[in-house]
């Protein structure tokens, strides 16, 4: 067995290969659950890189991007929201599995055997097929899974549009494996099965020839995401399409696929995307300037999300909770801005003030700490205060946070931000 600390080191080669399930048992077998790397989080830079590559290739081939910015940001926001519970506790897919393993296992297969590795590969993929099929056929499960199908586009960002709810039912379909498969082996393949499904969410790849007979491919999965009559409830595979062929749910791509729910949700707000469900394509009416701002804010919150996961071991529960609330508030505000909601400017004003408060309390660490308050005031259109701040060298001395009873300062900030946002929205 290798050193547990060394197991957390995942090479660049492995981070790329893991997204295509091109891994060897010898490099991904671990004795304990604690040794298993967080492959999904480590793959985040490659999610972004492949999405940018898809953007370039799509633009070259078709003269336009493979999807809208608003839809892509909404998909990635849903992905972030779905991962936030992991900051506080281990996934129920693992906790339930470990409980069954420790109390009811029948036999213990060797964790370092290639046969165990390949058997788990088949078992997890088989379990995923039945979970995925039931998520479409059982209403209460569909309520969680519909999030993933709510995009009216089909590109790599769509793969990140995950539900925060579906793990509370998916564990049932994997639990029989806990009777004989060690948790560490299961945890590896659970991540690999999920990561494999990222690259098949694209229209850039057409047909993969003989591989179409065995593997789930972009062509097969496009059918699954279609709302055409011939696409409904077809191709539930995770990695291997053979399960659909065996159980009669396979359908080949034979006409242009129209994506999304049969009753589209028509919103970019992340919480509505998680729970909701006019037959017209929906795009944001926000101005280009506002979309640029939203993109910048999303990039910053994505970096903050990554930093939070990286530092969760040293952060207090209070800090984690406040950071999660701020992430959710930011994503919600972004959705309001893209939806052009009447209260979007007010919510964004509140978000700016919460940001300042969390910085003052030490729960957030701005990239440019000495300029953070000045930048917020500048963004709010509050130039006189910026000059005072620059002269004083103490951002908090002239802030309403330094003097919470200064109602005039609070009113000025609220007025400045709201006025600024009203201008951006037009």
Automatic annotation (TrEMBL):
It comes from the Eukaryota. Residues 290-376 form the Alkylglycerol monooxygenase C-terminal domain. Keywords: Endoplasmic reticulum, Iron, Lipid metabolism, Membrane, Monooxygenase, Oxidoreductase, Transmembrane, Transmembrane helix. Its EC number is 1.14.16.5. Pfam families: AGMP_C, FA_hydroxylase. Residues 118-249 form the Fatty acid hydroxylase domain. Its cofactor is Fe cation. It is found in: Endoplasmic reticulum membrane. Glyceryl-ether monooxygenase that cleaves the O-alkyl bond of ether lipids. Ether lipids are essential components of brain membranes. Belongs to the sterol desaturase family. TMEM195 subfamily. PANTHER family: ALKYLGLYCEROL MONOOXYGENASE (PTHR21624:SF1), STEROL DESATURASE-RELATED PROTEIN (PTHR21624). This is Alkylglycerol monooxygenase. It comes from Odocoileus virginianus (White-tailed deer). The gene is AGMO.
